Description:
Homing Intron 3 (I-Ppo) Encoded Endonuclease, Chain A; 2 domains; three-stranded antiparallel β-sheet; 6 helices; binds zinc ion
Amino acid sequence: MSRFRMKTMCGDGVIRTLIPPITMDELREYLPQRYRLEERGHRTPCWIWVGGQKGGYGVMRFEGRPRTVSRLAWRAFVGEIPEGLEVCHKCDVPTCFRIDHLFLGTHYENMRDAAEKKRMGGLFGVEHHSAKLNPEKVRFLRAQFDNGIDPSDEMALKFGVSYNALKKIQHKQSWKSVT
Ligand SMILES: [Zn+2]
């Protein structure tokens, strides 16, 4: 299969010839060349997607169709997104795909989080976290543990909690009311 190249203005303003990624490994190399740093009043600068947009979100073609860049970044650098969960922005900048500005949440949490930030004047920094665990996610985690998958640092990162918090859920020392 022939791979076309495209001239792309990269985040540093330099035009480079990049080959659109096909595999996850290629995506991991590609994404860090497609952002520009922007100070948006958070602890760390946002990684603003340099490329196409749809509905305010960064989009790029991958696996045969346009996909949201923040979701792709999560998949490339953290792992697959559990079904039913969304990649939400702590920084409230939809075109940002900096991993530590993202967290997993349900659609409901995403909406509530956005509404909350709006109500509070949008002054939250990156440390603001209204969504960590909820009964839905705890049930999902317990199902993983029941299937023999043990808590890991990667899982902790994915859910925005500590490794010990996962251990406690596994041993039913926390979230006891969730069955
Ligand atoms: Zn950001």
